[in-house]
Amino acid sequence: MDFLSNMGMGFAVSLSLANLGWCLAGVVIGTAIGVLPGLGPTATISLLLPFTMGLDMTSSVIMLSGIYYGAMYGGSITSILVKIPGEAASVITCIDGYEMARRGRAGAALGISAFGSFIAGIVATLGIAMVGPYLASVAIAFGPAEKTAMLVLGLVLVVQVSSTLHFKSLMMILVGLLLSSVGLDQLSGAQRFTYNIAYLYDGFAIAIMAMGLFGIAELLVMAEKAGGAHQLIAPPKGIVALLPSRTDWRASAGPIARGSVVGFFLGLFPGGGAMIASFASYVMEKRLSKHPETFGTGAIEGVAGPESANNAAAQAAFIPLLCLGIPANAVLAVIMGALLIHGVTPGPQLMSSHPQLFWGVIASMFVGNLMLVILNVPLISMFVALLRVPPALMSALIMIFCVIGAFSLNNDTNDVMLMVGLGVVSYGLRKIDLDPAPLLLAFVLGNLLERSVRQALLLGYGSPMIFLEKPISAGFVAATVLILLWPVLRGLARRLRASLSSQRPT
Amino acid sequence: MRWGEVVGGIMLLLLAVFALVQSVFLQLWAYGGPGPGLFPFVLGVLLAPMSLVYLGSALRRVLRDQREKAVPTGAAEGAEPVLWGKVAGYVVCMTGFALGLNIFGTWPTMGAAVFLLLAVVERTGWVRSLVFALLFVFCSYLLFARFLAVPLPSGTIW
Fold first, then answer.
1. pTM of the predicted model, to two decimals?
2. Where are the domains of chain B?
């Protein structure tokens, strides 16, 4: 009963005219940036962060989350028609989606991807609404020691699936945590690393960090390459061409159902994410298929499963953010930044302290997914036309958004200079294969982590044993140690097996 | 990018040492509990050896490349060349845009930055660049000043 009344409240919030408008803006922008290769949701949400500060916090999160899951839809369009994934999560769709398009079945591929994403989105949203409250009710009992151990475990999990080596990602996490300690100390009020520079008293702004590390860096990455025309397969004309046939539906029903479930569970884990979900779904479908040889040659199951999985994972990733206060990836770290800017700390208390925000955002996902499937089917040609915009013009537009956005935060040129500086640093980091995503995640979580660590140590009279004395915290610590030592243990086991097999008499 | 890794390793090491030294002055332990310096100190302690390992492996790779006279990754045949001049051009345009906001005003600075970016950095053609610069300024004015009501600075020009 509670569930229904809460969802009712959520729909009342999300169906207000203003929130419908922001949700629509979010999903349209999300689809557009999903279509454009290069500019991802992290960069776009970072760029738009300053402009959402004037909005009501629920509207702001509704729009930003619309961009996130809208990008998952958009990413599949270019994967199918151009064989260029607009989004990392759509890489796997290139294989069979593009093959389907080459064989004249672009309409079916695009259609099943849109409908599969829609179904998965609805399944995941229902999952969030049902699982979220239970998770939050467990997490609400967490003290500082448990929170510390959980945050550390979350960061370590993110490291495990980072695009670069774990060692490098760990270094980036430490740098992010260090940067978060700049400014006035939240407990003692002491100045840290500020050197009497008034600009540094409040520390680095999350929005500036996000815009610099992702927006500017993305712009520089785009600049370094000579722009070329995309080889595009003509998009299908008319809605009928996009509707999958009965045979297509029969072949896709299983993959969509399985993709939704797999995506949902993988999305729950920090670091799980949409990309892993789509890969996992593809591998699973290929194994389950009676005709695995058709995969890679335009099998519709190879589109339906991964596309459903990536959308379900993208939405399930909101659970650790909204219920535990742990962003599962860089995009959600920026959305968490938006909440922090509005003075809301995501976590177990969010549901009781800001129920309209929590349930409003969840209900907006239903609405957003519906908007996406209604809009995307007839508007595919329009989104594809974006690929014809010259990259130079796109870069000029991004530059304007970055500079005006950064300046408008505090009407301060220093913010813009810092953003450009961070962008250059982030570009340099990418050049030497250091991923800035863990850095931003750690930066966002830095203050929370430090506060929890210090509170826990105070409660434990200075003894770090407090982290091992509490069972939940000890469990998290054990899991963290196990994950960190896993590569070493696996190597030892492999070596032991090899030595045993070499000793065995032949 | 081998030398880039070496430079990155040195920067990370310097950052770790800086954090270590500075956090000691911030009090590691105060009034029976952790002080403001403890957290950055611990981070510095963790980062220092990691950056040393990273730097060491980067240096080893540089030396190996020099010994073998190998072509470093990224400059390999077929790899897309990096247009460093363009990257620098973008940074200059953005920095100029930021610095000019308070001096010349938002709209003239934006127009100049977009024009230079398109005409000089992207070589789009002078006339097209001018047309697009004017169009972007006009649209930005409508979006930021009129629709979003973002307070943007005026300068000596506008």
1. 0.84
2. 2-68, 84-147
